[in-house]
Amino acid sequence: MDIYLPIAEMSVNSLLIILLGGGVGFLSGMFGVGGGFLTTPLLIFYGIPPAVAVASSATQITGSSVSGALAYLQRGQVDIRMGLVLVAGGVIGAGVGQIIFSALQTVGQVDIVIALIYVIFLSVIGGLMLKDAVGALRAARAGQAAPARRARHLPWVAALPGKMRFARSGLYISPLAPMLLGALVGMLTQIMGIGGGFIMVPAMVYILGMRAQAVVGTSLFQIIFVTAATTLLHATASKTVDIVLALLLLLGGVVGAQLGVRAAQKLSPDRLRLALALIVLGVALRLFIGLTWTPAEPFALFEGA
């Protein structure tokens, strides 16, 4: 059975796309995020249809996550067992997300829904990151250490039955908790084209209580398989993967992820979080303007429409 992979009709500078992939890959390696929460809206700014941007960015995230995860695996900072549980939940969530995505396509509302969800998510996440980074920088200037948060899972996580030991993560909990978390991220990955790391990383620390040393690498590990599954679903069901666009993003992303892993060992994490928070809020503002700004020509005719 042939799979139709439509090529985006917008003409985009290949070099800029590669640089975009490299920048997002850099963030992926540094913070353990898939980077789709920036890739997708930036592609929309270029004029790529949101549905195509979502599906194609998921392909790029897979490649950059492989590159970053291998680097952390070599350092012994990946919990394979925890990662597999997260993947199992993620694949289930991706299936549910595809049902929602297809329903939105059927009613013709997928583009506006994707943009609106991004505005909400990026505003909330960017605001929390900004508050955290500014607080840490103020404490550093005052000569005080930022208050350390103790890694400890939430009470409802401890109450779940069927506990397993995740040695590298320092946990003895039920696999149901990470599986539910993986399912949520998998659903968002399918609908929004995100890797889910910007949700997964803090959730692994503050909900599951994982050791910080294993969080980023394990996040990247699960992103590999979940985004690969979402790409396959988009290619076969919604047919919105632009393979040329994805390859250009992938080329830059793989290199950028390796540089991000190295930079994470050297640069100030507080200043990096501040810069990332400002970028996230800037993207959210740009998307909001795009949703509310009335264009000079509200109607347009296209050949074949």
Automatic annotation (TrEMBL):
Record membrane topology: Multi-pass membrane protein
Spans traversing the lipid bilayer: 12-38, 44-72, 84-104, 110-130, 191-208, 215-237, 243-261, 273-293
InterPro entries for this protein: TM_pro_TauE-like, TSUP/Inactive_protease-like
Keywords: Cell membrane, Membrane, Transmembrane, Transmembrane helix
UniProt main location, coarse: membrane
Gene Ontology terms: cellular component: plasma membrane
Intracellular or extracellular location(s): Cell membrane; Membrane
Protein name, UniProt field: Probable membrane transporter protein
Species this chain originates from: Sandarakinorhabdus cyanobacteriorum
